[in-house]
Amino acid sequence: MLKPRESVAALDPYRSPIASRNGLSLDLNENLAGCSPRVLARLRTLGTEDIARYPQREIGERVVANFLGVDPEQVLLTNGVDETLWILFSTYLREGSELIFSDPTFVMYPMFGLAFGARLVRVPAAENFAFPAAEILAQISPRTRLIAIANPNNPTGTVAAPADLLRIVEAAPDAAVLIDEAYFDFYGETMLGGLPRHQNLFIARTFSKAYGLAGLRLGALIGPLEQIEFVRRFSSPFNVNAVALACLEEALADQNFVREYVAQVTQGRERIAKLCHELELRCWPSSANFVLVQVGTRVGPFVEAMQRRGILVRDSSANPGCAGCVRITVPAGHQTDGVLDAIGRSLREVQR
After folding, report:
1. Is the pTM of this model over 0.90?
2. Domain at 15-32+256-350: CATH architecture
3. What is the pLDDT, as a whole number, of residue 20?
4. In terms of DSSP bridges, do strands 176-180 and 144-150 run parallel, antiparallel, or are they unpaired?
5. CA-atom Rg of the chain in angstroms
6. Alpha-carbon gap, residue 243 to 57, rounded angstroms
7. Cα torsion for 64, 70, 75, 77, to the nearest 10°?
8. Average pLDDT estimate for 318-340
């Protein structure tokens, strides 16, 4: 009987909530304002020839490299950050090697690590989900092959200090250290400046969040020239679709659109935090486009009450240390008023 590898057979599959999404989706951290009008205009110019030909990823990599100020050979475009992780993990992890990450964090880190037979070294977050730098440093060993750090972190929105990240990079020269900056645009701090000095540092970026291109599936891995060359060998040459590549330059060019959306998110975050304080709900400071809120033992009914009001939020209770918590994507602009009202009404409903 045909059987998969044991590490794959043992995986718990990721179950997307998309199949039942009806309403305002505050559960997947998408850009609720949509993409730039310049991207839509570019889409309307695409013809049959653009779709019929294989995509030229290298052109897009030059565009991203110019925007970031790095060598094009340091950039690998991917089919979303999920593929970024898959390629990087497959390049450096092997059976019995160790993957270190802080818990709670992005669910795909342990999933991909287990798929490649790695031993998971889970380091619990410190109090208030603070980044456990000292504890991670203490776990680095000769078996460590990859350290994955989301900064800002998902689902907490908390951040790690650049000095702590550099200490980890320097302490693990034989391991790939990934700084996943999927929510960089809402935070503003990056580790790109460390690339010239560190041959084991990798940065991940996505166009699914601030740029509103989640449906086009476009991510980027940036790293040292010598290492990206190895990573590139495992990547399919046509992994990024032609439509995403055609829109990339316009998306990057419209930074006014990105800044306006980020400003709306910042304002919305503050309003949600203020409401949580008024309702005596615990809420952690966030540097991303979402907020983690502790509702308590009635989290399930709260999620259902929000859904009845046409708003989807993410039950995060299964994440370590997140019992009773929901993750709420920050709405854009005028949507915030309705969301705040729904949070208050839903909470009063489940507390009766």
Report:
1. yes
2. Alpha-Beta Complex (3.90)
3. 62
4. parallel
5. 20
6. 11
7. -10
8. 94
**pLDDT tens-digit readout, 16-34:** 666 566 779 999 999 988 9
Among 3.40.640.10, 3.40.50.20, 3.40.50.10610, 3.90.320.10, name the CATH number for the domain at 37-253: 3.40.640.10
> Dihedral through CA 99, CA 165, CA 174, CA 237, nearest 10?
70
The full length of the chain comes to 352
Task: Quick: pLDDT tens for 105-132.
Answer: 999 999 999 999 999 999 999 999 999 9
Phi, psi torsion values for 203, nearest 5 degrees? -120, 135
Distance of alpha carbon 99 from alpha carbon 117, whole angstroms = 10
> Residues 346, 302: contact at Cβ < 8 Å?
yes
In the chain, where the domains are located? 15-32+256-350, 37-253
Tens-digit pLDDT profile for residues 160-191: 999 999 999 999 999 999 999 999 999 999 99
Is the separation of the CB atoms in 131 and 152 below 8 Å?
A: no
The pair of structure tokens assigned to 65 is 């490299």
Residue found under tokens 């949580």: 276
What amino acid is encoded at 87 in this protein?
Answer: I
Across the chain, how many H-helices and E-strands are there? Answer: 14, 12
